[in-house]
TrEMBL record:
Keyword Cytoplasm: no
Identification of the protein by name: Lysine N-acyltransferase MbtK
Pfam families: Acetyltransf_8
UniProt biased composition (Basic and acidic residues): 164-178
Pathway listed: Siderophore biosynthesis; mycobactin biosynthesis
SUPFAM superfamilies xref list: Acyl-CoA N-acyltransferases (Nat)
Provenance organism: Streptomyces longispororuber
Domain named N-acetyltransferase: residues: 2-177
Function summary: Acyltransferase required for the direct transfer of medium- to long-chain fatty acyl moieties from a carrier protein (MbtL) on to the epsilon-amino group of lysine residue in the mycobactin core.
Any one GO biological process: response to antibiotic
Amino acid sequence: MITWRRVTEADFPLLREWLARPHVARWWQQDTSPEGVARDFGPAARGEEPFEDLMVLLDGTPVALVQRSRFADCPAYADELAAQVALPEGAVTIDYLIGDPALTGQGLGPRIVRALVAATWTDHPGATAVVVPVNVANRPSWRALEKAGLRRVGTADLDPDNPADGRDHYVYRVDRPSGSDGRQAATGPA
């Protein structure tokens, strides 16, 4: 069973461990020092900013991190993306990582994405779509989005998280189901 809760400061040691693992560090260029993790995750954990850092649990055990935010809360990023692909008003984005490399490649990523997308329609009643740019080199990430039912709607030229990567990003999107509570958005191939 996949559940989640807000990241708390008690989760910071685990986040540091995950962020330092090679399969995560390759895509998440984060400062993994105690000070860096506190700086990057502390404001959301304390409710001081509108972004959501969510600890994903599989049968009660922490396995992943999902960050969810409204593009409206990141206007410069929204403008940059909207200049290249259609970005509906009210769109939300997510970013994600699986902490344990032994859990990757087993369908957990798509399950997490489907669950979070479905919950977004309830958690954010004004959300019109979930739009996710992902570096074209990060095949496991964009394949997880496809398996979760998001569709590729274009490409964008964006700064990469890792300076070693190119600027090309695929952009994936799923729209809020009309006349539905969103549950159908969580179905699809796994």
